[in-house]
Design goal:
Shape: flat
Number of strands: 7
Structural class: alpha/beta
Largest sheet: 5 strands, parallel
Number of helices: 19
Length: 422
């Protein structure tokens, strides 16, 4: 009984695995590999609690190879050496199936130490990771493995697992379990696609509920209290962090206030107020920009207010600002312009600053023509006069092109008229 409920009811057959139909339905490549017993090196990629370890355990049961498990968070090179020492012995006559959980925590040298044995087939590797394998796994390992992506599980598919978990706890403890309507659904919805979280919530609900007359009745209030935070799938150092931030900004850029508010809510529920504020400021400058330049101090004021009052009140000014950014006209003309200027500078396309712009008011004896010859624009009509500002080598460069919005087009119309370019 000391084992977690998730471990005690782990499926033993593929048909019992919750979700992952895109991988485990009959006829799918992974299903066929497992059923045929022809197991290559595999990498399972996906969020926590979606069946990666379960499927690896089922594979181990269907193969005649000795199963060894390591976890990248605490395993060492010595642990790998100990497994290698078992090869070609009575303990592992048919080779070893190594399940390496959280492989992203293995450094390059540790991963390389497995390469020889993976290549000669003495070790079959099944590695799992919650991070993008193409970023975290040594390319030589990756090239010798088949990658399968596990996905978050729909809450509807988790409800039967929740019901089964309560049934097992009922039998184990010889007590009848009943529940308010929607309790099972609430737990399933609240786990964020993570079956392990759902089962942990089931255990929590079961053990905090008092037994009366041989019966435990799980209330919706209990389920609410014990699952209210479990839907937040978020790791500030992992893919989920950057995926949410990316979706947050792209939703504002795409002028979808509802989606932008959804991702803001996920950031705030995870307590990541700084990231929500920073990306909001970036979006105001990068994606609205010159189409509505007044938005920058407005959003800055909202961000300042949010950081001053903190959560939960910070949600209010941030929501206002997110909606404003999403609904504002868009222009990235400023970003395009500065990037083009930076590209020229990085390529060495720059030269001496024109004499009339230099910060000096005298000439050396070697100057053929003495005088700075700077024309002060405010001394001229419309506060503008034609003169060269760029260095000679790029004097005709053009970085900024007005965006197709009312604000920038009005500026363009004004300057075209003043400069006589219309």
């Amino acid at each position: 009984m000391n084992n977690p409920l998730a471990a005690r009811i782990r499926p033993a057959e593929l048909s019992e695995v919750v979700g992952q139909k895109h991988l485990l339905e009959k006829g799918k490549p992974l299903y066929n590999m497992i059923e045929n017993g022809n197991i290559p090196n595999l990498i399972f990629y996906g969020p926590s609690g979606v069946g990666k370890t379960t499927v690896a355990s089922i594979i181990a049961q269907k193969t005649r190879r000795t199963l060894r498990r390591l976890n990248g968070t605490n395993a060492s090179t010595q642990d790998i050496k100990s497994i290698v020492a078992e090869l070609d012995t009575f303990e592992a006559p048919n080779g070893i199936l190594l399940y390496l959980d959280e492989i992203q925590y293995f450094n390059k040298r540790q991963q390389q130490s497995l390469l020889e044995y993976i290549e000669n087939g003495k070790i079959t590797l099944i590695a799992s990771t919650t991070e993008n394998p193409y970023f975290y796994i040594y390319p030589a390992i990756l090239s010798r493995s088949t990658v399968f992506e596990f996905k978050s599980i729909d809450w509807q598919e988790i409800v039967p697992a929740v019901e089964r978990a309560f049934h097992i706890l009922s039998k184990e403890n010889n007590v009848e379990v009943t529940a308010d309507d929607v309790v099972y659904e609430k737990i399933a919805r609240g786990c964020g696609g993570d079956v392990r979280k759902a089962l942990n919530s089931v255990e929590n609900c079961f053990y905090v509920t008092n037994t009366e007359n041989g019966q435990k009745h799980i209330t919706v209030e209990t389920a609410d209290e014990l699952t209210q935070k479990s839907a937040v799938k978020y790791d500030r150092e992992g893919d989920e962090h950057y995926d949410i931030l990316s979706a947050y900004q792209k939703s504002m850029r795409g002028s979808d206030p509802d989606a932008a508010l959804h991702y803001l809510a996920r950031l705030l529920e995870a307590g990541d107020l700084p990231s929500a504020c920073r990306r909001l400021m970036v979006c105001a400058c990068e994606d609205v920009g010159l189409a509505y330049p007044q938005i920058i101090p407005i959003v800055k004021a909202a961000v300042d207010a949010a950081l001053m009052v903190g959560l939960p009140e910070a949600r209010i000014p941030l929501a206002d600002a997110v909606i404003l950014v999403a609904l504002s006209p868009k222009s990235n003309a400023g970003e395009i312009a500065i990037d083009a200027a930076l590209e020229d500078v990085r390529k060495g396309k720059y030269g001496p600053i024109p004499r009339q712009l230099q910060n000096k008011h005298f000439d050396g004896e070697d100057a053929e023509v003495k005088g700075q010859f700077y024309k002060y624009p405010h001394n001229y009509e419309h506060h503008w006069v034609e003169q060269q500002y760029l260095p000679d080598i790029i004097k005709n460069a053009r970085y900024y092109v007005a965006g197709n919005n009312k604000n920038e087009q009005s500026f363009k119309l004004y300057w075209d008229k003043i400069k006589g370019s219309d």
